[in-house]
Structure formats: structure tokens, C-alpha cells
Amino acid sequence: MKAEPIIAVLVMTLPETNLNTSSQNPFLSLNYESAILELGDDYYDEVEAAEFPQLILRWRNDALLSRIGLDAANVSDEHFIEAFGKFEVHKPLLALRYHGYQFGEYNPQLGDGRGFLYAQVRGTDGELYDFGTKGSGKTPYSRGGDGMLTLKGGVREVLAAEMLHRMGVNTSRCLSMIETGLDLWRGDEPSPTRSSVMVRFSKSHIRFGTFERLNYIRRPDLIGNLLNHVIYIYYSHLGAEPDKYALFYSELVQRVALLVAQWMAAGFCHAVLNTDNMSITGESFDYGPYAFIPKFDPNFTAAYFDYYGRYSYSNQPGICKLNLELLQKPLSAVIPTADMEQGLSQFEDCYHAQYRVLMLKKLGFTNLEELESGEYEELLKATLRFLNNYPVSYHDFFSDLATTFSNKWRDDASLILSGSEIAVELGASELFLHWSGLYHKILTNMAPDDIEKVGQTLIQTNPKTVILRPIIESVWEPIAQNNNWEPFYNLIKEIQN
After folding, report:
1. Which of 205, 230, 271, 497 reaches 20 to 30 Å from 44, CA-CA?
2. Of residues 276, 306, 339, 400, which has the active-site annotation?
3. What are the φ/ψ torsions at residue 139 (nearest 5 degrees)?
């Protein structure tokens, strides 16, 4: 099953593993680069990976291998285990140093506490990618923790990343997940619970908090070095610009605004938007207590420990803007504050514009010139008002819109969503009739070919399955009770298709 993105499990315990495959391991042939090492050791600590009593490959993301120049057929399960379970392939392993604002309070005790930067590799697209671990053991920043990741936590992260990727969100993804045979004790899971180590495939390991730490230790020189590094590697198109620093911050604002618009349109609540969980590239990563909203509830909060709803679904745009504002403090060592304030002033307009485009796409409409008309704006407002006032599943609404769409809707408004249980449940509700009337009005002004495009866009944009918490539990239960991974693999296939 080597060529499949989801594989059957391979049980591999240490006593049974006699791997002498280093010379043939394709991961050794990758174009590893030392970009982060060139910064010097003020930014990281060299660490050792934990040794695990058991190595069982549970997930390999073959869909990513071609992006780093590898053919999945030539990469065995043993190669994954050797590289990302034993961590024998590449050294040094680097735990990055960073701080962060956690629930509004500055915490100088952070850093990579259960992971490290395994390696950096140049992709076939010319971009640099990081292999970052989670659950690989203690580091100087473990703060009394065991440095490990529960198996359920690994399962949840794999699912989150693949789901968000399917929904068009700029996200990191999991390259591998290996069960490690340790019994872990956690206060929020039945314990002892099984353990795992995963490798995250992302654009950068550098966070907002990486800069915040340097400001805390009063090293503006290191801030400048790091900023030059970030621009050179991740914003290279700005390198020759005389005002490259201000342009960098302005573009970061736009990237973050786009990301949070993607989250909001996807109905995704990250749950822990501390500054140490925000990437300097504007990429989504690190999925702990996240959740997809069951219905359109602006106050929905994913983390059980977020007692005051700081990171609720509707607060995400404001929190991301605040985190960008907090980032100005360390960056002021290099970038004039006035320039950053000008860049940040774009956030709301950029966010609302992106959110509008993404939501109208979920409704099937992509013609940007036409989308500027008042009819589309009215439809979007009516959609949100309808979803906010009726106990309708956010994701089922758009999924049903996609699966029941018909060209006949152009001729008869009463047919809109007529094949869906949503319409049956709501009957002749005023808000629904208002919304369907607006949708019908837009369709009547479209040519037949454009009507076909609406149906195609709906299918491409709105997956049939979204991993709400009951769905995640439905695949975790067979794993926990009977070590049955088939529902998990089937769910992944459903997400990817």
C-alpha cells in the first residue's frame, strides 16, 4: 500500500526492527538546507529525540511526497519509521526559542517543549519547507511536562490539517504519525492513554513569539537578523525594495487577514490563538482543542479552558489583529511604528473583502466583477442572518446547497433546497423564503453556462463531510476500543475526495 495516502498499519517494535536501510532511505536524498542554522545558536537549542518502546506507523501522507521530489512507491514504511520515529536520518535537531502572549498574559517560559525542527528541505516548487515534530520528547522548554503527544491528539491533528486543506485554508499538514508505545497520563483524557509522535510539514517554524522573546531579552540586533532572514527566505520578492521592512509587515497583515477569513468561512475555531501559535508566514498550524462549528454561533468556543470566550469563533479576526499589533513592539527595533500602523490599518478592509469573496464562493458565485453588485451583498447578509437565527447546521446548509443544486432553481424559487431536509424542517419561514428569493433572483440573471459553473463551484467548495466533534469521536472510539483504524482511514479518504 506504499502508493496510497492512507496505509494499513505497520506494527514495528524496537526489538523486531533491524533496519540497515540508511543508504537506501529516500529521505536521505532530500535537498536539506541549513537556513535556520545560519542564524546562529541564539535562536535555538540542539536537542535529542526520545527513544520509544514501540514504533507503529499509523499515517503517512503520500500526497506530500511529490512536493519534495519523492515517489511514494520508493518510500517504504520502514523509511518513515527510521526517519520520523527513530530520527536517525538527520542532525542536528533544533528546539526553537520563543515566548508568547497566552490568553493576554505574556509568558517568557515558552519554546519548543515537545517538539523540534527536524530539518528544512527545498520543495519542487522552489519553496523551503520545515519538518517539525510534535511529541518527540523533552526539551529545555518542557516546563515539567513529558514532551509527548497523545495518540488521540495526533489523530485530531491529522484530521484537522487534511480537512482545512480540503477547504482551501492555508495550513500546515501532517507528513507522518507514529504510535510510540508509551502510556501517558492526561487530565483531559481517560488515562493512561496511548502516545504518538508526528511530523508537521509547514512553511516555517518561526512564530510571532520568536520575535517577542528577542525583545524581552533586549536584543534588537537579533531582531534585525531574524527579520532579514524571514524576508530573504519567505518574502524574497521584497528583498530589493528600499522599504522592504514596512512592506513585509503590510504583507503579513494581509496574509493573516486572508487566513482568518478562510477560518471563518470554513466554520473553524482554532481555539488557542496565542502569539506563539501564529506563524510569521501567515500559515495555520498547531491543532489542539480546535473545533468546527456545529451551527452558526458567533459565541462558539472550542477550548474547554477558554472560560471567557477570548478565542471564540467570532473573536478570531479581532484577536489576530491584536496579535499583529503586539508584534509591532519587537519589530519597532527595525520598522518605524508609523509604517506598521499604516499597514495594520488595512486589516479590517482586507479581512472583510476576503471573507465576502470566500462566502459568496460557498454560495456558488465566483465572478468577481459581478460580485461587486448590491444583490450579492444583500444575499450574503441574508445568508448570515438566516444561519444565525435558525438551528441549522452550518456545514449541512452549504453541503445540501451543493448536492441538491439544480438548473431548475433558475425557473422556480420554490425548488431551491427542496431536496434537503433543511427546507422541509423550516417550511415557509420568513427568513428562508427571503433568502431563497434573493438566490433565485441572482440565478435568473445568469446565462445557462454560468448556472452550470455555480453547481460546479458549490461541489468544489463545500465538502459533504466536515469533521465535527461527534465524527472525530466516531473514528476514535474504534481505535481506542478495538485498535480498528479502518474508520479513520475511510474518513481521510472521504475528506480528500
Report:
1. 271
2. 276
3. -135, 175
